[in-house]
Amino acid sequence: MIKQAEVKAFELRDQGTFIPVLCVHARVLHIEEPDRYLVRRGGWGADQEFVYMININDSRCQYDPFKWRSEPYLTAHLYIREHWDELQGGEVIDAEFLRGERPEPKTSERLEEPLLDDIPPYSDRCFLFGPSADEHIDFINRAKRQKGP
Description:
Layout (H helix, E strand, L loop, with lengths): L1 E13 L2 E12 L6 H7 L6 E8 L5 E2 L8 H12 L9 E3 H4 L10 H4 L9 H8 L3 H15 L2
Parallel strand pairs: 1-5
Antiparallel strand pairs: 1-2, 2-3, 3-4
């Protein structure tokens, strides 16, 4: 179904904002049944291309730039979609610069403030400090028993 897909990460910047995003550019070509039915029900046409933009921090994602409820996302998503082939992964997408509010784009925080290697990634911290999957399941089962039929 999806014949070509490419993934790039970008540093979305705006006034006082740093948002790491992951973008997936894909082309949907020559869809056969039953995939065709499902894709059409989702609002897609045949031979279409799109860019999904995913906020790595909170997993919000959109393929339609105009569905973002935040101006920096809209500006960045439109720019990424229009300039996909020119962009390299890891580049800064400065929404302020794109809107003409800055004379030059910001530099990457990666160059200004390197990540400390002794801080575990967010996903590891969740497992270190949050309840385990078994604890979640036990909590749900206890709640069901207390609620009754």
